[in-house]
């Protein structure tokens, strides 16, 4: 593509089209005779859908016949790395910002160790003008967002629409390991300007899209277990003395206090194990707990916090834990705000890559965003 791909008018048009593709409802919903509250809210802000609705109301729309679960499974076939597939249509629906999130295309990257029936996927888009760092071209005009991946059950994937060659898939996986910042704008090509507000806006849209679907899928990928049961399963002692013996050399613990997962997440490090950032840097560290070890059971590992965004339902944070994790690793997190420990509403961790997403109930931000020091992470590596 020539350098005119950077013309503001063309970038703006591409972004408007991307917003329509990601956030406008399908025809059968748009043409509903009596709009519900969600559709009415969307129509109030989307002139494109208002015009489209007028046309549909005049001409009518023929709804597509529903596909049964059995038919969908038969069409799905065997899911393999390199498949380009749509997420199941049943996952689509109304979400934040008055958008109707339509199930996007994703690239199947690899199976998830320790998670039977789940794979890691990344979003796919066909907006060449908006391609940026970490967008890997799968075919002319079709890009995989290596920076925007999440786990998905195979039974939530539709039929394959394309299979990319192994060499191309390997290129995507290499880009995943390099992990550019999703907030960066511009492109890796030399003839691109280093920044573009339109590309940055598109990447925010893509983060919001993957957040919507990954949070909907999280419960299906990771089985929910009550905290007390998890504590026993995760090798966290319930006995007070055993808890002190195991962790008091690493973190400051109060005696005569019942052992808790909360303490393991937020208690301060002892001086001997306090992680130190490089001079002039503010670094976020996670606690990595190894239940199977007799020594060195708790250590600090660096974390790359790649995005934070306020959404109507809360504060969305995402990043990557820069350390190898066990295939059944589990993430616990707390946001310390105004002296109160806030647990996330949703947690997603891809143990094979270290990528995570957290959705916290929106705190009273009092004019400032949370700092890295407000976030406490514990990874139980199994």
Write the layout of secondary structure elements.
Blueprint: H1 8-23, H2 27-30, H3 37-45, H4 47-59, H5 69-76, E1 83-87, E2 93-94, E3 100-101, E4 105-111, E5 118-125, E6 135-139, E7 142-153, E8 157-163, H6 166-178, H7 197-221, H8 227-233, H9 240-247, H10 261-266, E9 284-289, E10 298-311, E11 314-321, E12 330-337, E13 340-342, E14 346-349, E15 355-360, E16 375-380
Parallel strand pairs: 9-16
Antiparallel strand pairs: 1-4, 1-8, 2-3, 4-5, 5-7, 6-7, 9-10, 10-11, 11-15, 12-13, 12-16, 14-15
Helix pairs in contact: 1-7
Produce a short descriptive summary.
The protein contains 10 helices and 16 strands.
Relevant terms:
six-stranded antiparallel beta sheet, alpha+beta, 29% helix, SH3 type barrels, eight-stranded mixed beta sheet, 16 strands, 382 residues
Task: Please give a structural write-up.
The protein has helices spanning 8-23, 27-30, 37-45, 47-59, 69-76, 166-178, 197-221, 227-233, 240-247, 261-266, and strands at 83-87, 93-94, 100-101, 105-111, 118-125, 135-139, 142-153, 157-163, 284-289, 298-311, 314-321, 330-337, 340-342, 346-349, 355-360, 375-380. The protein folds into two domains: 3-221, SH3 type barrels (Roll); 227-380, no CATH class. α1 packs parallel to α7. The strands form three sheets. It has an eight-stranded mixed beta sheet with strand order 13-12-16-9-10-11-15-14. It has a six-stranded antiparallel beta sheet with strand order 6-7-5-4-1-8. The chain has 382 residues and is α+β, with helices and mostly antiparallel strands. Residues 180-194 and 223-232 have low confidence and may be disordered.
């Amino acid at each position: 593509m020539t350098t005119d791909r950077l013309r503001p008018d063309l970038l703006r048009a591409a972004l408007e089209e991307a917003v329509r593709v990601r956030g406008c409802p399908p025809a059968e919903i748009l043409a509903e005779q009596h709009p519900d509250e969600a559709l009415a809210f969307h129509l109030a802000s989307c002139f494109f859908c208002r015009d489209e609705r007028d046309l549909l109301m005049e001409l009518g729309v023929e709804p597509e016949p529903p596909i049964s679960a059995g038919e969908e499974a038969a069409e799905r076939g065997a899911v393999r790395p390199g498949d380009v597939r749509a997420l199941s249509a049943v996952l689509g629906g109304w979400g934040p910002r008055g958008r109707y999130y339509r199930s996007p295309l994703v690239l199947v990257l690899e199976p998830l160790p320790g998670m039977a029936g789940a794979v890691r996927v990344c979003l796919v888009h066909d907006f060449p003008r908006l391609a940026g760092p970490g967008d890997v071209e799968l075919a002319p005009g079709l890009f995989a967002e290596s920076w925007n991946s999440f786990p998905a059950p195979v039974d939530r994937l539709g039929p394959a629409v394309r299979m990319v060659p192994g060499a191309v898939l390997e290129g995507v996986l290499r880009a995943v390991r390099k992990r550019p910042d999703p907030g960066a704008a511009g492109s890796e090509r030399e003839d691109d300007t280093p920044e573009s507000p339109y590309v940055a806006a598109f990447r925010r849209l893509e983060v919001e899209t993957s957040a919507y679907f990954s949070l909907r899928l999280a419960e299906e990928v990771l089985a929910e277990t009550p905290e007390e049961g998890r504590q026993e399963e995760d090798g966290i002692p319930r006995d007070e003395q055993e808890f002190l013996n195991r962790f008091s050399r690493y973190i400051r613990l109060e005696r005569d206090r019942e052992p808790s997962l909360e303490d393991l997440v937020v208690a301060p490090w002892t001086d001997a194990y306090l992680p130190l950032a490089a001079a002039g840097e503010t670094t976020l560290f996670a606690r990595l707990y190894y239940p199977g070890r007799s020594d060195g059971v708790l250590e600090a590992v660096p974390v790359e916090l790649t995005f934070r965004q306020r959404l109507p339902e809360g504060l969305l944070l995402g990043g990557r834990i820069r350390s190898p994790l066990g295939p059944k690793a589990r993430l616990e997190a707390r946001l310390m705000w105004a002296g109160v420990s806030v647990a996330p509403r949703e947690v997603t961790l891809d143990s094979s890559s270290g990528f995570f997403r957290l959705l916290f109930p929106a705190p009273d931000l009092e004019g400032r965003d949370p700092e890295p020091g407000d976030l406490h992470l514990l990874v139980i590596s199994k």
